[in-house]
Design a protein that fits this description.
This protein is an alpha+beta fold. It has one domain. Helix content is 49%, strand content 16%. The chain is built from 2 helices and 2 strands; from the N terminus they run E-H-E-H. A two-stranded parallel ribbon has the order 1-2. The protein is globular and about 35 Å long.
């Protein structure tokens, strides 16, 4: 069963690290950010590169 995770503040810091960790563990991850779209997009690209 695939789990879907929403990580608030996933664009940087602890949120980004958490999003990447959960993605590596096989979860589908939704990344939320407040103001830095470029940082959030970078995290999303890194997650997508995991497969």
């Amino acid at each position: 069963m695939t789990r879907i995770v929403l990580v608030t503040g996933g664009g940087r810091g602890i949120g980004a690290a958490t999003a990447k960790l959960l993605a590596r563990r096989g979860h589908d991850v939704a990344v939320n950010y407040q103001s830095n779209v470029a940082a959030a997009q970078k995290v999303v690209r890194e997650i997508e590169a995991l497969g």
